[in-house]
């Protein structure tokens, strides 16, 4: 069985996912075979595995850092919020249904064997399991049925590294308070503290570290400096969603829908010098966009109503009339159509008029399509015609079936094994597609950026790096940063049970 080490945090977005990814890469570099694990994840940013199963994006990222294919056993339970009180529950990569928080809480214990089986299966195949907690272990109202934080640490006898985010302030109180709220048997699992996202002079911080060790009885294993690494984020707390101003030659604007999902679809735009990637939640923030993207969403009908009521729809239609290029991905593609129907009540039932920019209609069905795909752009006319013939890779993850009107032009031809089908639609300077990961295809992104730049009377010279190559470089940078900041020798002793 594998050795284990667990990364917990004092709060969401403390840096658990990134520290866990760093440990996965470090262990791999040092000759081990590590694998990540998170029992339960709540996020709208998900990933589809090669066998068509859905898991949290953070564990897919950590698997890449470990040098292994993402595997749904690494995240056996995924909760995708569909409203303020309910979530779609995905167990072992497949939809189990939609539950309110109360309903899920009532049946949560029945999922404990699912978590244990997934963990044991991974543990039999790898040398080290790097476990990530969720939220905070000090959420005392949730501890009774916990199998994500200290409940899991006790279940698999994992030592815990507790991470605090100094960038948001109050890190000493949060680390000490978290430890103080734990039961003695839980506190015994904490083998070290990590302070994350530090900016400043470490010598000024050092007296506080000594006091923290005295108060908690746990050693501080290091202080990780803040660094602008570009790694896939897990949830809506991502800093990249806060970008509001355009400071590049090309202004790419993603509509920040209330139930925005898979926002990492667009991260590649931010890697091109001269390009600004930002997210807009108000009509005035769209004013000077050079390219508008409607992203995926977990609640298409609800977010379409929001577009209408917020004035965003009117602004998008105004931009369309002025020939601003527009794209829709997944739920955004559905919104760009003529009509959206929900006869089975998958999103509450009813029917809504779409934005009317593409000649397609969508009907929501209970079956969810989750599959990795390869594509080839088919566009023969309009603004995007120069993209024809470019190869793409990505995945589909949706519950809607979209039909093009007779004679409407598809966006691309997709293949999944022997299965092929036309995907999406294009009309003039608007396209829509169900394919996530489209912009990670370097040839596609480079050609599209060139088209948009030419329309704006400018030129972008820098070629785009392939996404996989770029991510590998980021994981190595992360590992170097964390090696230099933490007491890795002591972490190895913790792993071996000697500390």
What does this structure look like?
The chain is an alpha/beta fold. 29% of the residues lie in helices and 29% in strands. Helix 8 links the parallel strand 11 (190-198) and strand 12 (220-225). It starts with a strand and ends with a helix.
Q: Tell me the radius of gyration.
A: 23 Å
Query: Which class best fits the helix and strand makeup?
Result: alpha/beta
Sheet-strand content, in percent, reads 25-35%
The total of helices stands at 14
The whole-number mean of residue pLDDT values reads 93
What's the quaternary structure here?
A: single chain
Based on the model shown, name its key terms.
about 500 residues; alpha/beta; six-stranded parallel beta sheet; six-stranded mixed beta sheet; about 30% helix
List the helices and strands and how they pair.
Blueprint lengths: L2 E7 L6 H14 L4 E4 L2 E3 L3 E3 L5 E3 H10 L10 E5 L4 E6 L2 E7 H7 L4 H12 L4 E5 L17 H7 L3 E6 L5 H10 L3 H4 L2 E9 L3 H15 L3 E6 L24 E6 L4 E2 L13 E6 L10 E4 L1 E2 L2 H11 L1 H10 L4 E4 L1 H5 L3 E4 L7 E4 L6 E18 L13 E14 L7 E5 L2 E5 L1 E3 L2 E4 L8 H14 L11 H19 L2 H8 L4
Parallel strand pairs: 1-9, 1-10, 2-9, 3-6, 10-11, 11-12, 13-15, 13-16, 16-18, 18-26, 19-21
Antiparallel strand pairs: 4-5, 6-7, 7-8, 14-17, 19-20, 21-22, 21-23, 23-24, 25-26
Helix pairs in contact: 1-2, 1-13, 6-8
């Amino acid at each position: 069985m594998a050795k284990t080490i667990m990364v917990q945090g004092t709060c969401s977005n403390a840096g658990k996912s990134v520290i866990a990814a760093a440990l996965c890469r470090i262990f791999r570099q040092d000759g081990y075979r590590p694998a990540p694990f998170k029992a339960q994840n709540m996020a709208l940013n998900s990933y589809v595995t090669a066998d068509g199963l859905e898991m949290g994006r953070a564990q897919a990222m950590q698997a890449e850092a470990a040098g292994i294919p993402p595997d749904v056993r690494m995240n056996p339970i995924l909760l995708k919020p569909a409203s303020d009180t309910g979530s779609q529950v995905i167990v072992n990569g497949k939809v189990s249904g939609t539950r309110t928080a109360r309903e899920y809480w009532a049946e949560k214990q029945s999922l404990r064997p699912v978590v244990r089986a997934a963990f044991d299966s991974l543990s039999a195949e790898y040398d080290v399991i790097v476990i990530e907690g969720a939220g905070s272990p000090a959420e005392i109202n949730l501890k009774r049925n916990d199998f994500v934080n200290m409940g899991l640490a006790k279940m698999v006898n994992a030592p815990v590294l507790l991470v605090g985010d100094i960038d948001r302030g109050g890190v000493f109180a949060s680390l000490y308070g978290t430890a103080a709220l734990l039961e003695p048997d839980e506190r015994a699992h904490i083998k070290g503290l990590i302070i994350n996202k530090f900016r400043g002079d470490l010598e000024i911080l050092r007296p506080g570290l000594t006091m923290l060790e005295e108060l908690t009885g746990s050693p501080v294993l290091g202080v990780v400096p803040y660094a602008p690494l570009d790694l896939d984020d897990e949830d809506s707390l991502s800093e990249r969603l806060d970008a509001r101003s355009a400071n590049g030659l090309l202004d790419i604007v993603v509509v920040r829908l209330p139930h925005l999902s898979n926002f990492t679809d667009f991260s590649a735009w931010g890697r091109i010098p001269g390009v600004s990637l930002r997210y807009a939640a108000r009509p005035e923030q769209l004013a000077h966009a050079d390219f508008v993207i409607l992203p995926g969403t977990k609640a298409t009908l609800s977010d379409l109503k929001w577009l209408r009521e917020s004035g965003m729809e009117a602004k998008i239609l105004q931009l369309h009339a002025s020939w601003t290029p527009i794209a829709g991905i997944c739920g955004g593609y559905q919104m760009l159509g003529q009509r959206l129907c929900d006869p089975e009540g998958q999103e509450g039932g009813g029917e809504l008029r779409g934005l009317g920019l593409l000649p397609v209609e969508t009907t929501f069905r209970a079956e969810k399509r989750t599959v990795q795909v390869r594509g080839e752009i088919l566009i023969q006319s309009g603004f995007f015609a120069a993209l024809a013939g470019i190869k793409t890779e990505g995945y589909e993850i949706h519950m809607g079936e979209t039909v093009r009107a007779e004679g409407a032009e598809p966006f691309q031809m997709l293949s999944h094994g022997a299965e092929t089908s036309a995907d999406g639609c294009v009309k003039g300077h608007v396209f829509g597609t169900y394919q996530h990961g489209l912009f990670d295809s370097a040839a596609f992104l480079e050609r599209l950026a060139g088209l948009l730049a030419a329309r704006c009377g400018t030129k972008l010279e820098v070629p785009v790096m392939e996404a996989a190559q770029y991510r590998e470089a980021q994981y190595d940078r992360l590992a170097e940063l964390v090696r230099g900041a933490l007491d890795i020798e002591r972490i190895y002793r913790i792993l071996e049970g000697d500390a």
